Amino acid sequence: MAQNAVEKTPLTLLGLGAMGTALARAWLAAGHQVTVWNRTPGRAAPLVAEGAVLAESAAAAVAANSLVVLCLLDEASVEEVLAGTEPAGKDLVNLTTGTPAEARARAAWASARDARCLDGGIMAVPPMIGVPASGAYVFYSGSHELFTRHRETLAVPAGTTWTGTDPGHAALHDVALLSAMYGMFAGTAHAFALIRGEDIDPVAFAPLLADWLTAMAPAVHRTAERLKSGDLTGDVVSDLAMQTAGVPTFLGTAEQQGVSPELLSPYFALMRRRLAEGGGGEDLAGLIDLLRRAPGTAA
Ligand code: FVH
């Protein structure tokens, strides 16, 4: 090693799917020694050719290093993989997508076994990993000591965003952002369905749609300010009464184009409900609390 060179933290990575492979590659490229394990060992071959060490079992992989990263399909696979391992004294970083409750339970599980645990929610797709300009980052929550100790290593594949010591908060941020993304995908699907069958080039239509969504995105800041202040009616630009009056136009257009309104109808139902409650002078922030139920009762 060159004089003054800082030794990179060696780590273990459990799970070599599309995301796990991208993570392993980024750490290898940055000079980390990476021990890998995957249920289907053949998936490790390209990484071994790039310098990774393949462990013969999950238990051997966990034993190999203090820092153990998991990137598996879901919590059930994490449960299965960790079952035969010895986590005592380990720093576990779980980048598997899961619910806040699963993250909290996993943190309690680790703590009961003398291990530390950090939960992570990846805000990226595999090609963005290890590409600093891509905007990829990971939400982290749980042990702040662990986060601080390994921050430099964790920052190699993607940026790091701390969300607090409640182990469930990384998952909650992750799922909240992804839920908004699915809302956008749903609206996009409806828009393309409307123009399909007409002499409109979807490729020419796409930039119009993307630019419109971009122009509307700052509305999230106004919504947040209203939720914080409780003021739902001050400086409203497009009030609920006006927007609800437009609902028949949206439903009529869908019908004329032979498109099911099933993606939009639930939102229109909320708008009509809030209007009936007297919220006509508000903007759409007034719909948010209509969605809230006692935890655990949502379908
Ligand atoms: N890929 C993406 O776009 C998203 C981006 C945001 C974050 N997600 C989450 O990352 C986790 C891993 O996702 P992935 O893309 O690597 O997923 P797959 O390519 O499907 O690989 C799944 C790995 O999990 C292993 N696995 C599944 N079940 C088990 C099990 N019962 N026991 C042991 N391992 C299991 C699987 O092994 P194998 O099929 O190769 O043997 C893969 O290594 C995920 O939470 C995303 O939500 C990705």
From TrEMBL:
This protein's record includes keyword Magnesium: no
Residue ranges constituting the NADPH-dependent reductive aminase-like C-terminal domain according to the UniProt record: 166-293
Molecular function terms, GO-annotated: NADP binding; oxidoreductase activity
InterPro entries: 6-PGluconate_DH-like_C_sf, 6PGD_dom2, 6PGDH_NADP-bd, HIBADH-related, HIBADH-related_NP60_sf, NAD(P)-bd_dom_sf, RedAm-like_C
Record key words, sorted: Oxidoreductase
Entry superkingdom: Bacteria
Iron recorded as keyword: no
Residue ranges of domain 6-phosphogluconate dehydrogenase NADP-binding in the record: 12-156
PANTHER family tied to this protein: CYTOKINE-LIKE NUCLEAR FACTOR N-PAC, OXIDOREDUCTASE GLYR1-RELATED
Protein family per UniProt: Belongs to the HIBADH-related family.
Protein name as annotated: Putative dehydrogenase
Source organism per UniProt: Streptomyces albus (strain ATCC 21838 / DSM 41398 / FERM P-419 / JCM 4703 / NBRC 107858)
